[in-house]
Each structure stands twice: as C-alpha cells, then as structure tokens.
C-alpha cells in the first residue's frame, strides 16, 4: 500500500466517522419535532422487526408534533406501543388512523443533561478520528521500516495526516456547538 492510498483511505474513514456522528446527533432530542427521532424504534410487523418509517408515513404537523399514518389499520396500536416502550420519553396519542406524537417541553435541567450527552458523543467521535490517525501513521512507519518509503516522505505524510485529523476534529467541534445551541434554544 502506497502513502497516497493510506491518505485516501484515512480521508474516507474519517468522513464516515463524521457521518456516523451526525447520525447519532439526529437521535438526540431537541425541543423541536424531527421524524428522524423515531428511526431507532422498531415495530413488530408480521413477526419481523422493522423501523417505523417502513410501516407508516412520518411527517410533521407543526414544530412540536410528529404525525404517523400507518399503512395498515392494525399497525396503529403496535406503533403506539413501540413508541411508549422506547427510551425517548414520548407519549403518542391516537386519533382514528392518525397517531400524533407531541414533543414534551424540555426543562432547563434536561437541556443541560442533553448537552453533556452531545459532548460525550463528540468525544467518542474525536477518539475514533484519533485512532484512525494512529493507524495511518503506523502504516506509514511500516512502509519506512520495509524500505518502501523514505523518512522525508514519512515526515511529510505525518504532517498531512495531522492536517486531515485537525480538519475533522474541527468539524466535530462545530457540530457539537451547533447541536448544543439547538438544544439550549427555548
């Protein structure tokens, strides 16, 4: 494996880490309704567990209410039960075929707890990025050890790897700050 391949591989893996972090952030509840909040909830559909989005239409009624329109009549009760049993603290209300999921108003204390959760997720993402940096640097050192690259190339590539790492860690910091601001907005 050449140094260019190592750098390209590193870039794509770090981009994947950022994407996974962004996906984790969408699951953290702010005061506003977001259909992505329900993505992690699985519903029993004829013996197999499926995400709610595969058995119903999800949409927003207003900024604080998610509406769920099941595709089959019998699914409403199962969807309601799955939402109630989830750890999201939501209380759905059925209105005929339509299920309304109002977002409860968050207290200041709960907002502070969620910002701590966001920071923890951010730290996990940074650790993953730093681990990728370490692996890339070790791969470059192995090339030098095997006499496939010079020490000058090693120094240059380590500097490039550090630049890529710093950029991605900055991205994580920006995402954390934006999510914290979103949570603390009343």
TrEMBL record:
Residues 21-184 form the Ribosome recycling factor domain. This is Ribosome-recycling factor. Belongs to the RRF family. The keyword Protein biosynthesis applies. One of its GO terms (biological process) is cytoplasmic translational termination. It holds the Pfam family RRF. GO terms for molecular function: ribosomal large subunit binding. CDD domains: RRF. Transmembrane segments: none annotated. It is found in: Cytoplasm.
């Amino acid at each position: 494996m050449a140094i260019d391949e190592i750098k390209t591989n590193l870039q794509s893996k770090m981009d994947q880490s950022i994407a996974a972090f962004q996906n984790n952030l969408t699951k953290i509840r702010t005061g506003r309704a977001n259909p992505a909040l329900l993505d992690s909830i699985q519903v029993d559909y004829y013996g197999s567990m499926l995400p709610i989005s595969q058995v119903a239409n999800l949409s927003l009624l207003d900024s604080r209410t998610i509406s769920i329109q099941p595709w089959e009549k019998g699914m409403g009760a199962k969807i309601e039960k799955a939402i109630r049993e989830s750890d999201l603290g939501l209380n759905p209300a059925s209105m005929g075929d339509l299920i309304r999921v109002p977002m409860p108003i968050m207290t200041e204390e709960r907002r502070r707890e969620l910002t701590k959760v966001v920071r923890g997720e951010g730290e996990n993402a940074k650790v993953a990025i730093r681990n990728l940096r370490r692996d890339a640097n070790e791969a470059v050192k192995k090339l030098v050890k095997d006499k496939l690259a010079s020490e000058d190339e090693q120094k240059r590539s380590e500097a490039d790897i550090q630049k890529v790492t710093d950029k991605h860690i900055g991205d994580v910091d920006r995402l954390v700050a934006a999510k914290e601001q979103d949570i603390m907005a009343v």
